[in-house]
């Protein structure tokens, strides 16, 4: 087992958790997608006096970027980055191609349905089995080449989709590397540890296209339920429409407003472990919209799956035990939000 796909292959989820609804055909939110309004726990939808979050916006070209990134990781585990060098035409093309995919009729999209033990293709969120209610969401996951699926969807017109997604993954990988390097330098880690986190060979990346169709009653629906991302770092493009919210202790759910040409960068579980919890990992969710179909594009970046993850050796009192990256992903696939507490020392 050496890849993310293989890890998921060994942890199948049931078929009924994979097939999204034909959302456009609905004029009300069905019971299956109607979330409790006053749940005591994190799943509550109602956001009275929703605040905008104060997570910092960092200009990567500014001389102070490094300090600001280090501070943002410690304070929030999240920041937005501008002037990152990814061409905005490419980002727009990714949104255009994603919309082209999700606009296909359901029976077409289901031709590339992710299998129960698969990692890539069309389907509901992987976290679906952990919730009683279904999400107002459909997704498409890409790891490397997406040519097989794209040929099924558009036998005579798949090239633009593939070229766009390939180019975007290359840019995301480079940007993730530069950001990780900056972040790890602020932690003062050893060269060996830097090599681990930055190894381009066998590093894992996954591109997740998220679609949140228009919803007749957004106050009942959940786009993507609260979760933390599992790998080291996530780079998210909100395509200009708000929906992303973070859970801030003492404040509750706060919206992360989209900023033109910015990526939201957040610490994932593996970086939280490596930083010995110095960098928090934020629970986040996505809500939906009554009049607009929202697209978001997440790139998840991780180290080689067969490598070990543990708190950096610079921490004298590690608060997590060491384990293989793939072992952690298996724990997460089985226990979801309890995975981190299961490896606490
Ligand atoms: O759509 C969003 O804003 C959030 C997406 C997300 O959290 C994810 O794909 O892991
Ligand atoms: Fe996420």
From TrEMBL:
Record's keyword annotation contains rRNA-binding: no
UniProt KW keywords: Dioxygenase, Iron, Metal-binding, Oxidoreductase
Required co-factors: L-ascorbate
GO molecular function, one term: gibberellin 3-beta-dioxygenase activity
InterPro entries in the cross-refs: DIOX_N, IPNS-like_FE2OG_OXY, IPNS-like_sf, Iron_ascorbate_oxido_reductase, Oxoglu/Fe-dep_dioxygenase_dom
Pfam families from the UniProt entry: 2OG-FeII_Oxy, DIOX_N
Gene3D superfamilies: B-lactam Antibiotic, Isopenicillin N Synthase, Chain
Pathway: Hormone biosynthesis; Plant hormone biosynthesis; gibberellin biosynthesis
Enzyme Commission no: 1.14.11.15
Signal peptide interval: none
Domain Fe2OG dioxygenase: residue ranges: 202-303
GO BP terms: gibberellin biosynthetic process
PANTHER family xref list: 2-OXOGLUTARATE (2OG) AND FE(II)-DEPENDENT OXYGENASE SUPERFAMILY PROTEIN-RELATED
Family membership noted in the UniProt record: Belongs to the iron/ascorbate-dependent oxidoreductase family. GA3OX subfamily.
Protein name per UniProt: gibberellin 3beta-dioxygenase
Organism of provenance: Ambrosia artemisiifolia (Common ragweed)
């Amino acid at each position: 087992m050496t890849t993310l796909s293989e890890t998921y292959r060994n942890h199948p989820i049931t078929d009924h958790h994979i097939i999204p609804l034909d959302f456009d055909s609905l004029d009300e939110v069905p019971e299956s997608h109607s979330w409790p309004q006053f749940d005591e726990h994190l799943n509550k939808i109602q956001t009275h006096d929703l605040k905008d979050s104060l997570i910092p916006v960092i200009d990567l070209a500014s001389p102070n970027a490094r300090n600001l990134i280090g501070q943002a990781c410690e304070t929030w585990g999240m920041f937005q980055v501008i002037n990152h060098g990814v061409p905005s035409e490419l980002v727009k093309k990714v949104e255009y191609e994603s919309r082209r995919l999700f606009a296909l009729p359901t029976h077409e999209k289901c031709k590339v349905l992710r299998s129960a033990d698969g990692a890539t293709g069309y389907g509901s969120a992987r976290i679906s089995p952990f919730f009683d209610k279904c999400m107002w969401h459909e997704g498409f996951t890409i790891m490397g080449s997406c040519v097989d699926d794209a040929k099924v969807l558009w036998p005579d017109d798949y090239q633009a989709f593939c070229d766009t997604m390939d180019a975007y993954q290359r840019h995301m990988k480079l940007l993730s590397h530069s950001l990780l390097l900056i972040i790890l330098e602020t932690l003062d880690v050893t060269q060996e540890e830097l090599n681990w986190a930055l190894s381009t060979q066998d590093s894992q990346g996954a591109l997740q296209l998220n679609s949140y169709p228009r919803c007749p009653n957004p106050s009942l629906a959940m786009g993507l339920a609260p979760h933390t991302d599992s790998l080291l770092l996530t780079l998210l493009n909100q395509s200009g429409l708000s929906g992303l919210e973070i859970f801030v202790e003492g404040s509750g759910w706060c919206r992360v407003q989209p900023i033109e040409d910015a990526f939201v960068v957040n610490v994932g579980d593996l970086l939280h472990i490596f930083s010995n919890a110095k960098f928090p990992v934020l629970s986040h969710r996505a809500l939906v919209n009554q009049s607009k179909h929202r697209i978001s594009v997440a790139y998840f970046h991780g180290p080689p799956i067969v490598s070990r993850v543990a708190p950096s050796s610079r921490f004298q009192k590690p608060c997590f035990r060491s384990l293989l990256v793939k072992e952690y992903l298996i724990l997460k696939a089985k226990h979801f939000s309890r995975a981190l507490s299961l490896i606490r020392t």
